[in-house]
Design a protein that fits this description.
It is a single chain. With 608 residues, the protein is mainly alpha-helical. The protein contains 24 helices and 2 strands. A two-stranded antiparallel ribbon has the order 1-2. Strand 1 and strand 2 form a beta hairpin.
Length: 608
């Protein structure tokens, strides 16, 4: 039985709408296609379908309707092909955009062999000596003072007055931080003239010469040689404590700058621990071993002198200050382990353009430059907080704390070594967590821990005579304090000083930071004995207040700097200083990293 033309048309429309092929890639039915299908006969004015059965032309009209349905299928197929083509073109365009975008995704730096060895050699040859010479005179001090007295007897035929002996020994100890201050004043002239690596090589003179002097002092029967040598080795420490962080900060990729920047402090703590181990009575801390122990400070310097010339100078120094792009490119390729370093070189060129009007800044210019105001205040506060927080006083007080807890006199040296080991292990922890946690969190938590430890230590020292378990609380407070200082206040100021300043101002900034560091160190060593006599255990309340004040300042003023370029960090401080950074005549447009589709931060090349 033949179907009417209207039924054929309606069935064709239903097939068109419900066909699986009419469902697009997003699962939505193509309802808009039904608008193109044939209208019903009633819509064109035919109301009596049954009357059409007697009409001869009804079969031909039905065939015409079928042809119309077929034509609409053809239209749908054509439209679907157009839609498919559009989707393919869109996906192809997206792939092209993705490929272009991937070209602008910055490679994450990795720890190459060249970078790792340059870090280890410079830190061992320079930073290690700083820590070693901090602690090298502590354990053998009775034997060295005995040598002073015996030398005086040989010269003048009578024992040295106790006050004179105390004065000479105080000079021997305090000349070290004073030499460090003088070394800090030499940073900017040397690093600008002969480079970062060149300064480290030159600095070895201030280690090898005093090592020979101290080693030969007993044979020469001259305690004056030890005092002069302590000044010279202090100059070595003053230079190395500033130049090594600067050098490594400029060698490192931005995603590893924090971790590598802590390595110098790690080697300082290793130097302290090494001196404590050598100072054990059964090793070198005795009447015959102390000259050799003092002379060992020259060994790392000799190693650095022979090996460091095989490693690159700072590429930023070569490009921005020397204008030698060829050498900068070659050294950067060695450090990164790949050939394509154009993006990093371009960032250096932009920094050079932004600094062209400034020129090389001296310390006086630094204090008068509006765009560096808060950076300068910040490094002064952090370095003062680092030294005035009581870290040296804790070490000074540690022996008496251990003795009060019942540790035997001969065993205190081993407990001291254990404290030094804690310092090393916590600094290693800081190396591994600084890039994940950031600089700001480590500074805040470190100063917070030190503040709490000082308060508890004051309570424990006050009541240790009346409460049996208080001496053990004192030992716990010392360990907690050392741990807190090791993860933040000790290493992070060096890292942040490198990051807060650009190439033209960085040397002068390290001069200021180093001078504040060593003067504060000298001040604590000079003042704390009097403070202890006057306030006793309550002197640690003062240190707790300094820790708290530094913490508040960091919370208020210092931003997070991890994984940012030097120009991006400068832009953050420019907003605080109410200034702008210009490249030529244009403002710098610093773009923040935005979350990617994967939820992780995508590192994009900063557009300027």
């Amino acid at each position: 039985m033949e179907e009417s033309a209207e039924n054929v048309s309606e069935r064709g429309r239903e097939d068109l709408v419900t066909s699986p092929a009419s469902v697009d890639s997003e699962g939505r039915t193509r309802e808009w296609i039904t608008q193109l299908s044939t209208p019903s006969l009633s819509q064109v004015g035919v109301t009596d379908v049954s009357s059409m059965a007697s009409m001869p032309q009804n079969i031909s009209e039905g065939r015409e309707d079928q042809m119309e349905v077929q034509s609409h299928w053809i239209i749908w197929i054509c439209l679907d092909l157009v839609s498919f083509t559009e989707r393919e073109m869109t996906e192809s365009a997206n792939m092209e955009y993705k490929e272009i975008d991937e070209k602008h995704v910055e490679k994450k730096g990795r720890l190459t062999t060249v970078l790792a060895l340059a870090t280890l050699i410079s830190a061992f040859g320079s930073s290690f000596q700083y820590g070693y010479n901090v602690a090298v005179v502590n354990s053998p001090s009775p034997f060295i003072q005995s040598f002073y007295n015996q030398t005086y007897v040989d010269r003048y035929g009578k024992p040295m007055d106790s006050n004179l002996l105390t004065l000479l020994w105080s000079l021997s100890v305090s000349m070290y931080p004073l030499g460090g201050f003088f070394g800090s004043l030499m940073v900017a002239p040397l690093v600008n003239k002969i480079g970062r690596r060149g300064t480290l090589l030159f600095n070895n003179i201030f280690s090898i010469v005093p090592a020979l002097m101290m080693g030969a002092s007993e044979l020469a029967k001259s305690y004056e040689m030890i005092i002069v040598a302590r000044v010279l080795v202090g100059i070595c420490a003053g230079l190395s404590s500033n130049v090594v962080p600067m050098y490594l900060g400029e060698l490192s990729p931005k995603n590893m700058r924090g971790a590598i920047g802590i390595v110098p402090q790690l080697f300082i703590t290793i130097g302290i621990l090494t001196a404590q181990v050598f100072g054990i009575r059964g090793i070198l801390g005795n009447s015959s071993g102390w000259p050799f122990m003092l002379a060992l400070t020259g060994v790392p310097a000799i190693i650095e002198l022979f090996l460091l010339p095989f490693f690159p100078e700072s590429p930023r120094y070569m490009l921005i200050q020397r204008g030698d792009e060829k050498t900068a490119r070659r050294d950067l390729q060695r450090l990164r382990g790949w050939e394509e370093v154009e993006e990093e070189l371009q960032e250096m060129r932009l920094e050079e353009q932004s600094e062209r009007a400034e020129g090389r800044l001296s310390v006086l210019n630094l204090f008068s430059f509006p765009s560096l105001r808060w950076q300068l205040v910040s490094i002064i506060v952090m370095n003062m907080g680092q030294q005035l927080s009581g870290v040296n006083a804790i070490y000074y007080y540690a022996d008496s704390i251990y003795a009060s807890a019942g540790v035997r006199t001969n065993d205190i040296q081993y407990v001291t070594v254990g404290t030094g080991a804690v310092n090393v292990f916590m600094t290693i922890a800081a190396v591994f967590i600084v890039e994940a946690s950031g600089r700001r969190l480590l500074l805040l938590s470190g100063f917070g821990i030190c503040c709490g430890a000082c308060v508890l230590l004051t309570i424990a020292l006050t009541f240790q005579g009346s409460v049996e378990w208080m001496p053990y609380l004192s030992i716990t407070c010392v360990i907690i304090y050392v741990s807190g200082h090791a993860i933040g206040p000790s290493p992070i100021p060096y890292v942040v000083t490198t990051e807060m300043f650009r190439q033209s101002s960085r040397p002068a900034a390290f001069m200021v930071a180093g001078s504040v560091h060593w003067l504060s160190n000298f001040t604590v060593g000079l003042v704390f004995p009097f403070l202890e006599n006057g306030l006793g255990s309550y002197s640690f309340i003062l240190f707790a207040f300094i820790c708290l004040a530094t913490l508040v300042y960091i919370w208020w003023m210092i931003p997070e700097t991890k994984n940012k370029t030097f120009l991006e960090i400068s832009q953050m401080f420019a907003e605080r200083n109410g200034t702008k950074i210009l490249v030529g005549t244009e403002d710098l447009d610093i773009k923040e990293a935005k979350p990617g589709s994967s939820g992780q931060e995508e590192e994009k090349v900063t557009a300027f």
